[in-house]
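Backbone-to-sequence.
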């Protein structure tokens, strides 16, 4: 027989495999398949598992929500459950809470399965039952004596400024630069500050009634006023409290929730140390002037007269001449005000909503009063602010680290 050769003339070798080796071969194949399957499974599990440590919680949600307004940071693995189990449960809970907050606290949410601010505005002079989380926030507002809740039509006028396409249009809508607008928001403020014109009556058991006079209803209809009550710039303070309440009720406390406009609820009960960056607006821009150390749990409110993030576009308008309009409105005259550029206030006793209500008369004012801030220390409310490049505070044992030689404590 001729030897078989390839095209290059090299001899081809042919080997016969014995039937005796077939079992071994099948065993090897099975083993390799098992190893591949196990490797694939381990790889998938490693991706799906949540590592221990601090993570940003995004929230599992498919509906409209207010997640873009908040950041939730949580330390997984510090409790009894595994980080993966904690992550799954918290993602679902946080996502649903963000959806519910949207339905309850935003008029723009419209009608939904939860009765919130929209329903209150749609049914003046009728008693309705709202969600308990919203009722608690409204109760705090009503009991504070503040009339900010009734500035809804004024907030709508300032929204025209914030959403203006150009500066010329913004000036026309700005009550601080247009006499007709100033007169109109003054009229709206007079209605808002008159309990005979508008008043939210709380009857317990989550029952509320928005009492509105016929004169105000007629005026609102004539001027196409859609809403008579709104949380305005205080909204995220109360939503932060709402989220914090839901999380703590479900045992999630090893983290903090912060809004883009300066409201933070740190829930951590373990006595851990945290820090907060202190910013100040100067001629050079926005300075990271210092770092404040604090121990949780704590509520913190950072009020500022200027925008720091792109997400603040609907809360501020900066004109070319340096004038900045903010969403913080004085109920007395409907004017945008900020008594100082920065104010950080904090409390271990109060939520963000009550804290913001307490410092509002000091900040949303024509002049800044250090004495008024110092009086709040009797309620367990402490503050940090700036006097030029000097860092001021009224907590004696506060730990501060000044970051730049241009600032002094």
């Amino acid at each position: 027989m001729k030897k078989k050769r390839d095209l290059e003339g090299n001899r081809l070798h042919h080997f016969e495999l014995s039937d005796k080796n077939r079992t071994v071969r099948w065993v090897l194949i099975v083993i390799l398949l098992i190893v591949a399957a196990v490797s694939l499974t381990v790889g998938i599990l490693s991706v799906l598992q949540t590592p221990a440590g601090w993570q940003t919680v995004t929230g599992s949600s498919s509906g409209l929500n207010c997640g873009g307004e908040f950041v939730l940071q949580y330390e997984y693995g510090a409790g009894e459950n595994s980080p993966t189990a904690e992550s799954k449960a918290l993602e679902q809970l946080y996502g649903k809470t963000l959806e519910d907050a949207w339905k309850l606290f935003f008029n723009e949410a419209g009608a939904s399965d939860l009765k919130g601010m929209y329903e209150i505005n749609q049914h003046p002079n009728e008693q309705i039952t709202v969600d308990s989380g919203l009722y608690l926030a409204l109760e705090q507002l009503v009991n504070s004596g503040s009339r900010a809740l009734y500035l809804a039509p004024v907030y709508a006028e300032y929204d025209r400024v914030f959403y203006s396409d150009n500066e010329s249009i913004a000036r026309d809508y700005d009550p601080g630069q247009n006499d007709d607008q100033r007169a109109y928001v003054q009229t709206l403020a007079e209605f808002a500050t008159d309990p005979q014109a508008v008043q939210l009556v709380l009857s317990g058991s989550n029952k509320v009634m928005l009492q509105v006079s016929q004169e105000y209803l007629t005026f609102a209809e004539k001027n196409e006023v859609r809403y008579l009550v709104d949380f305005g710039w205080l909204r995220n303070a109360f939503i932060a409290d709402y989220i914090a309440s839901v999380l703590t009720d479900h045992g999630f406390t090893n983290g903090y929730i912060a809004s883009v406009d300066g409201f933070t609820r740190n829930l951590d009960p373990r006595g851990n140390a945290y820090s907060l960056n202190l910013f100040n607006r100067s001629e050079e821009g926005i300075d990271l002037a210092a770092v404040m150390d604090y121990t949780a749990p704590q509520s913190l409110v950072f009020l500022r007269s200027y925008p720091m993030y792109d997400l603040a576009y609907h809360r501020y308008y900066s004109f070319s001449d340096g004038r900045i309009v903010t969403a913080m409105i004085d109920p007395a005259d409907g004017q945008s005000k900020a008594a100082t550029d920065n104010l950080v206030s904090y409390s271990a006793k109060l939520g963000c909503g009550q804290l913001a209500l307490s410092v509002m008369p000091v900040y949303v004012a024509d002049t800044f009063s250090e004495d008024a801030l110092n009086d709040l220390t009797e309620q367990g409310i402490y503050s940090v602010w700036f006097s030029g490049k000097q860092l001021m505070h009224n907590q004696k044992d506060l730990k501060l680290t000044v970051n730049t030689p241009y600032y002094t404590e």
